[in-house]
């Protein structure tokens, strides 16, 4: 009898201990260093054997692509495994056999609003597969750079009515393909430009300081609750931008609500930070929707978009950043810049002769059109990014230069014969973290600080005989900011290269 009583007493003590650690209504998460699983049994199975079975099946659906070079970042969806686990598996399978010192996982916050980004202050995340330990040294370092990138439990809590799933669902995959590798869990409470910039800087600075070889993981789904055809139309440009490493275009289109991704900022953070840590190429593995999952039947009238991809260094240099145009292409571009200006001034439509438009002119590149009279500037307008063709970009830039440059009155009909034309075709914007990276004569520069910004094309500094410091100071002046504003820790700098056609 005594033995039976002791067994029951031991069982009661064990149940109390477990309830104090894992119950949903525990009063003080700050005192518990191991975050328990909160969506096991809902977003993914609650049993370890079932998790392993499902994930191993996702990993083996196709042969690995065997990406050449170091994989530095991946983007994966975070829906329930029956909807998107197979899509995530395409990226996670490429990690088998690769060695990392730590994995930094970045997700959005679906459940709690807070400013900035929250780096988990506990010791581990727990899933039915076991304990995923946190790299506390790297976590604390990241959280020590900017006040809004903080060491906290925001977004990681399990005592709220609903707990965050977007980060947790990635961990079982990592426990299988990167067993034992410590993690750094980060939840973004705000997805604005400032938080994105600060998190990129904090990650890159900390990783380099501690000399860690890291994998960055962005957790995000894409468009929500459109029909299948609409979802594909909305999501396709975002996936294309990922493949071209064009995080600037992605961020701007998400900001303007033209594209959709609940974890858009985590994706752009991972893209920017991956490039700073050596990535020079990107690969999109798979796009799908909840309606195309082979593991569940879903109505095609309301679907959610998913994609997976990776960012890597292919050891072969940089992505192609400018179009390869023939002399005929260049003549067509210059001709349509002139037609666009004339059309805008005379208020006449432009007729496009598709028989002389090559496929190269249908690629997406932003452009500026510069107008001069007797060598003096008369107008210069364009775009920093575009989702239209190069030809249409030039036509739009010509119209804006002739009629919308706020520094000048609109071009008049009598000036048309006096105009000199120059078209500048822009590469994608590349984020830099050090002003010393600007190369005068090669780089155009885009500068942004809070709500102010300004841009100079690559040819401006040589024409004005500016050195790097003078270029940056005049850029700040153009943005109507103090001349040393580019030195602010909150300043954002992007460089781009250009093809000049005149």
Q: Nutshell version of this structure?
A:
33% of the residues lie in helices and 22% in strands.
Which range best describes the helical content: under 10%, 10-25%, 25-40%, 40-55%, 55-70% or over 70%? 25-40%
Principal-axes geometry comes out as globular
**CATH homologous superfamily grouping of the largest domain:** LigB-like
Unreliable runs: 1-27
The major beta sheet can be summarized as: 9 strands, mixed
Overall radius of gyration: 26 Å
Describe this structure in words.
With 502 residues, the protein is of the alpha+beta class. Helix content is 33%, strand content 22%. The protein contains 13 helices and 20 strands. It has helices at 2-22, 48-59, 81-92, 136-142, 171-177, 193-210, 228-243, 247-255, 264-276, 327-346, 390-403, 460-464, 468-478; strands spanning 34-35, 70-76, 102-108, 117-120, 124-127, 130-133, 149-152, 183-188, 214-219, 224-226, 281-289, 303-313, 367-373, 376-382, 419-426, 430-432, 444-449, 452-456, 492-496, 498-501. The strands form 4 sheets. Strands 2, 3, 4, 7, 8, 9, 10, 11 and 12 form a 9-stranded mixed β-sheet that branches. Strands 14-13-15-20 form a 4-stranded antiparallel β-sheet. It has a 4-stranded antiparallel β-sheet with strand order 16-19-17-18, covered by helices on one side. Helix 6 packs parallel to helix 9 (264-276). The chain is globular. 46% of the residues are buried.
